[in-house]
Specification:
The chain is of the alpha/beta class. It has a single domain (about 1-145), classed as 3-Layer(aba) Sandwich (Collagenase (Catalytic Domain)), CATH 3.40.390.30. It has five helices and four strands, in the order E-H-E-H-E-E-H-H-H. The chain has helices at about 15-30, 45-55, 90-100, 100-115, 125-145; strands spanning about 1-5, 35-40, 65, 80-85. It has a four-stranded mixed sheet with strand order 1-2-4-3, with helices on both faces. Helix 4 crosses helix 5 (about 125-145). GO terms for molecular function: metalloendopeptidase activity; RNA endonuclease activity; zinc ion binding. This is Endoribonuclease YbeY. InterPro entries: MetalPrtase_cat_dom_sf_prd, YbeY.
Length: about 150
């Protein structure tokens, strides 16, 4: 399992080895132990650029995922799952608003992004699929909590 993490912001301290362990545990729980994943932690400006360029939405968001299995060459390397981009700025605001720690919110957004690149959806596939994704989020987040990763 290879998880590459790039922290491209400095405002919010992030332990990348610790975040890598969380990502590896999520992938293992989902049945992707031999996969590859790229995680980028950025700020609102960085994620806004990505959101504008690729999704045509000119605003920051909390997490964006790009699945490598989608598109013309998706089958070339099935072990390469894709990219998860998280705004640490938005994660920090959401953590404060939700009364949870920054780390907890960051890990939840990582989980949410990984679920998207492994085929889960809550936006385009209807209410039943959204409930299925939320149930999987609760299940795996509980594992992370139980194992002291969150």
């Amino acid at each position: 399992m290879k998880v590459a993490i790039a922290n491209r912001q400095r405002r919010h301290p992030i332990g990348t080895p610790r975040l890598r362990k969380v990502a590896e545990r999520i992938l293992s729980a989902l049945g992707y132990p031999d996969s590859e994943l790229s995680v980028v932690i950025t700020g609102d400006l960085g994620i806004r650029r990505v959101n504008r360029e690729y999704l045509h939405k000119d605003r920051p968001t909390n997490v964006i995922s790009f699945a490598m299995a989608e598109g013309e060459f998706g089958a070339l390397n099935p072990a390469m799952l894709g990219d998860v981009i998280i705004s640490a700025d938005t994660a920090a605001r959401e953590a404060e608003e939700g009364g949870v720690s920054f780390w907890s919110r960051l890990c939840f957004l990582l989980l949410h992004g990984i679920l998207h690149i492994t085929g889960y959806d809550h936006e385009r596939s209807g209410e039943a699929e959204a409930r299925r994704m939320e149930a999987k989020e609760r299940e795996i987040f509980a594992i992370l909590e139980r194992e002291g990763l969150v």
